[in-house]
Every structure is written in C-alpha cells, then in structure tokens.
Amino acid sequence: MNGRIFSSLFIIIILFISCQNGKSPDKRSENKIVETKNNIEKKIESFPLPTIPTMLSSPKEREKYLVQHYWDNFDFNDTSYIHRAEITEQGWVNYIDLLKQSPLPEAQRVIKAMMRAISTKNTKVFKYFTELADKYLYDPNSPLQEEELYIPILEVMVKTPTLSDAEKIRPKDRLKLALKNRVGQLATDFSYTLISGIKTNLYRVPGEFTLLFFNNPGCHACEETINKLKFSVIINQLITNKRLKIVAIYPDAEIDEWQKHINDFPKEWINGYDKGVTIKTKNIYDLKAIPTLYLLDKEKKVLLKDAFLPEIELYFKKHNIL
Prior knowledge:
The chain has helices at 8-16, 59-69, 88-99, 104-119, 123-138, 147-159, 169-178, 220-230, 233-240, 255-260, 278-281, 309-318, and strands spanning 33-35, 42-44, 191-194, 199-201, 209-214, 244-250, 270-273, 292-296, 302-304. It is α+β, with helices and mostly antiparallel strands.
C-alpha cells in the first residue's frame, strides 16, 4: 500500500457512533458480510470494529474502550488477512493513529498485550504484524513513525518463543538502540572537532536549548533541512535571543567532503565532525536516517528525539518559548 490513508476523522466517527439520543448503532455501519455460495464461509469486507457500548457517552470513555477492544473481532488465526491490505494494513494504520492520541503508558500497554497475544496464535500472522510495525513505526520516512510505540513490540519480539534466535538478532539490536537517548533521558555526551581543530564535547555547549543536527553535507535531505532551519522564523528568533544553539555534527569519515560544504552552514551554528567516528561505530546515537534532529534542554535532557523541524517549531510554540 503506497499511499497511507489515516486521519483523525476516523477516530471522530467511531467515538461518536451511537452517541445521538442514546440510540443503538445503525446496522448500515456494521461490517458487510458476504456469504459464499455454500452459505457457510464468510468473508469480511471491511475492518471488524468493535461496537462501543452506548452507556459510554463521553469521547474519552469511548476512545479508551476502542483502544482496549480494537482487535476483539479480528481473527488472528486467519492468514488470509495477510493478503488483504485494505482491511488489515488499513486497520493497523488507523489503530496507530488512535494510539498516538491516547496517553503513552496506556498505548504502550495495549499494543504490547496485542502483539503478545498474536505471538501465541499464529506465527505467520505475528510476523506480518511485526513487518507492519517496521513499516509504520520504525521507518524514518513513515509519517506515523513512533519509537515509543515500537519499543513494546520489540520487547515482545526478543522474548517470544515464536521467533528463532536468528530472527531475534535484528530486534535485539534495534531495541538496544531505541532505549538510548529517549525523551526524558540525558543525551549521551560525545566529543567532536571544529574546523579550527579544537576538540570539545556536547555537554560544553551553552544555552537554554540545543538542537543537535546529525548531517551529511551534500545529501539532498540534509541540504533541505539546512535551508529550512536557515529560514525558520522561530529557530532564528531563538538563536538571536541566545536561547538556542544549533550543533551540526558530521558523523562519517570523509572529512574532505565535510570541509567542502563548510560554507553551507551559518556562522552562528556550531559545526563539527566526529574525528574518531565513534558515534556510528559504537552506536552512541541511533542514526537510522540522515539527517537526524534531537532537541535538548539546558541540562542536555532529550525533549524531542529524531524529530522533524515542524515538530520542533510546534514544541516551542506550545510551550510559549519564543
């Protein structure tokens, strides 16, 4: 499925079904059941959503019920769903969208319980859902990427007897990286070298906020991000007011290539490179994609991890930091 169809409209519709006058849900909103010629086998044509009890009148109560019972009517033993992206994959996308609007601890609990339950039912279906998790929660190009929801799934994968030791190697490595530099934790300190040859480290950077920008000069996405940062009104206002420092770090070994692009970076930024390439070789930071942005506070605690610039700007707006 190339196009990812997900919207909060889905959640709004579900939460308010049967709210009007306390009536039961309209039968037309239920899943269409198409009977086969022998009238025995039934084929579900849309995702089998649970019916929310009419006694739950508030949106918060209805949302909580939907999160907890979303998969109640889905048959995890039926492998045919693996080939029905319009049902299963779309159902997964809507589920993730729903979880992202729920309190994180609750979202983590229910998705972990769901994956643990699948792992005991059908190996093929379980592996299919781990692929969906990789695609939507791990892939840096996914608009639904959310490491904090991916971590509980990895925890299930590394413990379940459903997977072989060989199949657990990659999730173990990913879990180890995901647990580093999480939001709320102190960012790992590291050394870097400036163009002048001076060696310093992350924790010496002054300022109320630090925007850590891992980049590879010359790559198209990095050039785009540099330009967006240059012309961001919010970012530049914070830099002017001496509240924000941007630390641009080149984590690779081709220093000559980095030096060719020195002038691409504003002089107000701190621009350095990892001389020993330890960030990558020792996996100090999870650089699954370049560029990667981290927003840190004064103590170098992670506020946003692997974030997009609009998320960073929104953070400053929401907290009235201008």
